[in-house]
């Protein structure tokens, strides 16, 4: 026998503007009976142990709930709890990037609430994999609403369900920004330092990894360890330093930890020897770098490769936050901290050599202004230069090659101005200075490049062709060989 709440109404599944209107018409009464009876019939006709039948049922079920009319069913009278778990899990697995999950929405609307299974002692068992665990593995940042809806179904916060990897519902709530859920767990005595067995991540690791400031604050005020280390050797500070974010979460971390008399250890090294400062510099997070330095980060520590933070700045292979080197010197100067400008890494290379090898003219300029030693400077050989300077198709790399050639000339000029003697061998070692550049290039720029090479007593093989002079009507191109 199936029982339903006569007072409950339902909105149309996809259109917020469509509403169910009460009516005594025979047609609407028929629809109500039809939907309920159809659902009952579908469930009774499927053998849940046969994959094919389950899949066919899932398609029919999706079609039915999409156009559902009338009273919502009491799912507990139609399905076993394991079957509803399966339906919700399949809904998570089949959702697309931005779509809602109709099955989850429908189950929430019916008011269904999961009930825990009891162990031999009659107490709820926490060892169980739920759709929330599955969603945590499969979903992206675009699906935060899925987790909020699933927690409306799995709403027992006195039981912290744990899957085979050690991931718990509490971890999922921290990772996906479910503030109210986290608060309820903590109110019921949940340990804020419970670790994911497989990764060693704490709830605080997961919260800062996804920039959930309020949850991080809740955890810290509840006694979360700000220096917890996962299997990669990351503290929460490492985790946030790997992301290009502002320093707001870090400020909260430092402030509350100080208030709780648990100072944040800013110079912990991970398994590769990197401190949070190393990682923040790799990601170019200027605000976070500033916050780390002002809270005591050592600007000269080396990682497993012997790289100091200055090496990290000069080993980056992309043009972003070119002002980071200047900022790094500025903050350390304000803090009266001396930087080891000429430190050697495990390969015997200085930050200046890496900056030249990566064709970073701004970094070269900053290093020279702050005393980088040219008397012992050895110009990088071709083997230093990264794979990004290898030959590329002209169609793909027109602007890239031109930019590199321009930057290479700027570096040569800076070195020469500071007294370093360049020769043809040095310039030929820079792939960007001898690449072939096909682009719409103004003739005056090309001639200026030629004049500068002549000043260095280097006369490259230079050809300049205008569009009108070539039979094939190719754009102007400049060739250094």
UniProtKB/TrEMBL annotation:
SMART domains: ANK. ANK repeats lie at residues 199-231, 272-304. Keywords: ANK repeat, Repeat. InterPro entries: Ankyrin_rpt, Ankyrin_rpt-contain_sf. It comes from the Eukaryota. Pfam families: Ank_2. PANTHER family: ANKYRIN REPEAT DOMAIN-CONTAINING PROTEIN 39-RELATED. This is Uncharacterized protein.
């Amino acid at each position: 026998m199936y029982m339903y709440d006569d007072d409950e109404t339902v909105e149309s599944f996809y259109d917020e503007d469509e509403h169910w209107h009460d009516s005594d018409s025979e047609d609407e009464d028929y629809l109500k009976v039809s939907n309920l009876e159809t659902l009952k019939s579908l469930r009774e006709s499927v053998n849940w142990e046969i994959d094919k039948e389950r899949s066919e049922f899932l398609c029919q079920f999706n079609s039915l709930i999409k156009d559902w009319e009338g009273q919502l069913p009491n799912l507990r009278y139609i399905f076993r709890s394991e079957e509803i778990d399966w339906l919700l899990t399949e809904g998570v697995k089949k959702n697309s990037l931005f779509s809602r999950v109709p099955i989850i929405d429908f189950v929430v609307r019916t008011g269904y609430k999961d009930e825990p299974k009891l162990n031999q002692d009659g107490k709820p068992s926490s060892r169980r994999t739920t759709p929330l665990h599955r969603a945590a593995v499969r979903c992206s940042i675009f699906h935060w609403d899925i987790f909020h809806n699933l927690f409306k179904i799995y709403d027992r916060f006195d039981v912290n369900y744990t899957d085979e990897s050690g991931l718990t519902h509490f971890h999922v709530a921290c990772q996906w920004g479910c503030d109210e859920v986290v608060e309820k767990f903590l109110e019921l005595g949940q340990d804020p330092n419970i670790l994911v067995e497989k990764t060693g991540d704490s709830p605080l690791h997961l919260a800062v990894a996804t920039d959930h400031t309020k949850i991080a604050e809740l955890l810290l005020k509840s006694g979360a360890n700000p220096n917890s280390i996962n299997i990669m050797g990351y503290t929460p500070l490492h985790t946030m330093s790997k992301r290009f974010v502002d320093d707001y979460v870090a400020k909260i971390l430092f402030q509350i930890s100080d208030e709780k008399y648990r100072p944040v250890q800013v110079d912990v090294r991970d398994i590769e020897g990197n401190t949070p400062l190393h990682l923040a510099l790799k990601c170019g997070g200027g605000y976070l770098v500033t916050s780390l330095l002002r809270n005591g980060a050592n600007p000269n520590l080396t990682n497993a490769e012997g790289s100091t933070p200055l090496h990290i700045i000069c080993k980056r292979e992309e043009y972003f936050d070119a002002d980071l080197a200047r900022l790094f010197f500025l903050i350390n100067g304000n803090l009266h901290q001396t930087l080891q400008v000429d430190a050697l890494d495990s390969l015997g290379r200085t930050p200046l050599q890496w900056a030249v090898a990566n064709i970073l003219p701004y970094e070269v300029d900053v290093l020279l202004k702050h005393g980088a030693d040219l008397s012992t400077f050895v110009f990088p050989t071709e083997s230093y230069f990264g794979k990004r300077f290898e030959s590329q198709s002209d169609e793909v790399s027109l602007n890239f090659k031109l930019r590199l050639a321009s930057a290479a000339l700027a570096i040569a000029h800076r070195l020469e101005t500071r007294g370093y003697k360049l020769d043809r061998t040095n310039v030929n070692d820079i792939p960007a200075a001898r690449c072939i550049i096909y682009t719409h290039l103004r003739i005056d720029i090309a001639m200026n490049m030629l004049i500068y090479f002549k000043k260095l007593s280097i006369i490259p093989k230079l050809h300049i062709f205008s569009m009108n002079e070539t039979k094939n009507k190719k754009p102007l191109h400049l060739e250094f060989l």
